[in-house]
Specification:
The complex is a heterodimer. Helices cover about 75% and strands about 0% of the residues of chain A. Chain A is mainly α. Classes of the chains: A mainly alpha, B alpha+beta.
Chain lengths: ~300, ~350
């Protein structure tokens, strides 16, 4: 380009070069650019998650005295949690029920995601919408719907009695752990379905043909290619569902009986009627730690499985 | 080569997608140990035909026999063929070793034998020591080799290759062509290659089937296709070609040399035409040199390509001379063209 002519672009460049170090920094450092893009999210995350979390963590070391707190920094709450069996019972039960619900959901939802990814060729979006349609209604409404289905005079019981399979309503259906697990499994299904579907959808179809070409029939193709390639989705779905369901209290309160109370119900009580916020905080922290431990164990198991499968 | 044994027999194979026929009435044999290519422009049905051989598509009509056995009811995972996919289809969750060894599970080998065979393949594809690489740490050429090894380790009767070199840059492609050809000779497996690159097909193949619009136009050796194309489409697809109306050719070569009176037109390769800057002396029995004017000159390194417009008509001819010939001056110069009678290929309209 000749000297006499300066395009607007060049002018801008020259200005940029002369004046601003920040701009130069930005161009050079990808990390910095990423950080700036993340900044709004980080701010929101900081205000709504990290600060309350820190406050809760601090509070869990306090003690409730009447209507007031004593910030005496003691381990009393944690010691009580460790020594009173009610807490560990509730915690273990919650973990168990969440695991059951998650397992049930992943097992039920995987074939759906598989069908959607591999056998639906047209109108995939429509199918996705239809499958996730229940999740457009309120969570509470869905839980109530299960009361109608599972209840004494519910759809299942009256249906079974009508056709004469049972003489009395099945009592274990409502106000039981079964009811909570079923309801949780249904209520959170979309969270497990979507990541699994995405990971299946992403699988390159020619890789499936390659496995057939190399001598594997449909069954081994599933176990050697499709399942391992969809594991990231399965793991993501498992976490997305397991983590919130451990602490769920609405479902247990609405369709669970006395023996289906979960840790979330207890935490809610601490912040509500019992009015022992430090204890509630300690319980919440304990629950988060327990979830973390279970999550890490699950990841370790998956890694071991992956190594073993090769 | 044992030309008697037939490895693949394709009998009247037609494949329709709805009403659209991707392959129409293909009917030919591929011999055992042969390097056979399907050559054609994009969309001509090469991949479809290859996928019918692999079992991924079922022929709408006709049948395929491989090594004497009918393949109609045989699913892909039970066919004695293996395929190198166009995008290589490397398993992303497996490393190089496990990719190459994927098909060995069925052979129930012990660990040592399995490892030995994989090492042997790594050696063959010149990637020893790459076994533990993750599949996403491979270059295009390396992926291609892994795909090749993964198929060859099963010692198939036929190896199907769908544009295996298409994704590689020119230099690597030429190197891989040489290697592929040497590999085919050393393993002695029948190769069926799909390509749209006529140079690649020529360089690699024992025989080539030229395809267009789902039909096989001609099957011949590379030399046969180049020197004796049967139709205009084949002639124009394989190498570059001049097409002339018959009468012009007669004028250029003399009636005596022109025995192909019934041809609609004739084809002449650019390199068979001689370019003169002075009016050449008439030779006995030959026709007159055709006068024309140089309109373009392209310097290609080892060759120089000219465009010549014949005097008195709109016809342009391409002329290609080796770089050792004296370079004619600039476009606009008057020139004369001659060619030997045997350089003319008579063709019918198709
Ligand atoms: N599954 C399919 N459904 C419909 N049309 C197809 C399908 N596969 C290939 N075709 C069509 O068949 C023709 C030949 O395709 P293909 O065999 O892939 O050609 P090539 O490999 O020679 O480029 C193309 O026009 C393509 O659009
Ligand atoms: Mg193709």
């Amino acid at each position: 380009m000749r000297m006499a002519v300066t395009t607007p672009n060049e002018t801008a460049l020259a200005a940029g070069r002369g004046q601003s170090a920040p701009r130069w920094l930005l161009a050079r450092h990808e990390g910095l650019r990423g950080l700036i893009l993340l900044a709004p999210a980080l701010v929101i995350l900081g205000i709504t998650v990290i600060v309350p979390f820190a406050m809760m963590g601090a509070m869990s070391f306090w003690t409730q005295v009447g209507f007031d707190y004593a910030d005496d920094w003691s381990l009393r709450n944690y010691i009580e949690i460790a020594s009173e069996p009610i807490y560990s019972t509730l915690l273990l039960r919650s973990l168990g029920m969440a695991m059951a619900a998650t397992l049930l959901t992943v097992v039920l939802v995987y074939p759906m995601a598989y069908f959607l990814a591999f056998h639906v060729h047209r109108n995939k979006l429509l199918w996705l919408i239809i499958i996730t349609l229940p999740f457009w209604t309120s969570y509470l409404l869905r839980v109530f719907a299960w009361r109608v289905v599972l209840g004494f005079e519910g759809v299942i019981n009256t249906g079974l009695m009508e056709i004469g399979l049972i003489a009395e309503p099945l009592k274990f259906l409502l106000y039981s752990r079964t009811a909570v697990v079923i309801t949780l499994a249904h209520a959170w299904a979309a969270f497990a379905l979507l990541p699994i579907y995405v990971s299946l959808e992403k699988i390159d179809r020619s890789v499936l043909e390659a496995s057939a070409d190399l001598g594997e029939g449909p069954v081994m193709r599933f176990f050697r290619v499709i399942l391992p390639l969809s594991m990231p989705g399965v793991i993501a779905g498992t976490f997305l569902m397991f983590i919130p369901t451990v602490g769920d209290y609405v479902t247990a309160a609405l369709v669970g009986g006395p023996d289906a109370r979960m840790i979330g119900n207890l935490i809610q009580l601490q912040f509500g009627t019992i009015n022992n916020w430090p204890m509630g905080a300690a319980l919440a922290i304990t629950m988060i730690l327990a979830i973390t431990v279970v999550g890490l164990m699950f990841l370790g198991l998956m890694l071991a499985l992956k190594r073993w499968a090769r | 080569m044992n030309s008697a044994a037939t490895m693949i027999s394709i009998r009247n194979v037609t494949k329709r997608f709805g009403v659209f026929a991707a392959v129409q009435d293909a009917c030919f044999d591929i011999r055992a140990g042969e390097f056979f290519s399907l050559l054609g422009a994009s969309g001509s049905g090469k991949t479809t035909l290859l996928r019918i051989l692999a079992g991924f598509e079922a022929a709408t009509e006709g049948e395929v026999h491989i090594d004497g056995a009918p393949m109609d009811a045989v699913p892909p995972h039970q066919r004695p063929v293996n395929m190198v996919f166009q995008n290589y289809a490397i398993f992303p969750h497996l490393n190089v070793r496990d990719n190459i060894g994927f098909g060995l599970r069925k052979l129930k080998l012990d660990k040592a034998e399995r490892a030995r065979r994989i090492d042997e393949m790594l050696e063959l594809i010149k990637l020893p020591g790459f076994g533990d690489r993750a599949s996403d740490q491979l270059s295009g050429g390396q992926r291609q080799r892994v795909a090749l090894a993964r198929a060859l380790i099963l010692r198939p009767k036929v190896l199907l290759l769908d544009e295996p070199l298409g994704a590689l840059d020119k230099q690597l492609r030429e190197q891989m062509q040489t290697e592929l050809r040497a590999l085919q000779r050393s393993v002695g497996i029948t190769f069926v290659l799909v390509t749209h690159d006529q140079e690649e097909a020529m360089a690699l193949s024992d025989r080539i089937a030229v395809m267009a619009d789902g039909r096989v136009l001609q099957i011949d050796t590379p030399a046969g296709l180049y020197e004796r194309p049967k139709t205009r489409r084949v002639a124009s697809f394989v190498g570059s070609m001049n097409f002339l109306p018959g009468d012009l050719a007669v004028r250029a070569c003399g009636q005596a040399a022109w025995q192909h009176g019934k041809a609609d037109f004739i084809a002449i390769r650019p390199e068979r035409i001689t370019l003169h800057t002075d009016h050449p002396a008439d030779q006995a029995g030959a026709g007159q040199p055709l006068p024309g004017r140089l309109t373009d000159r392209v310097y290609l390194g080892e060759r120089v390509q000219y465009q010549v417009q014949l005097d008195g008509c709109a016809q342009h001819l391409a002329v290609s001379t080796p770089n050792t010939a004296p370079v004619v001056a600039d476009p606009g110069t008057p020139v004369w063209l001659t060619w030997p009678a045997e350089a003319m290929i008579p063709l019918q309209d198709d």
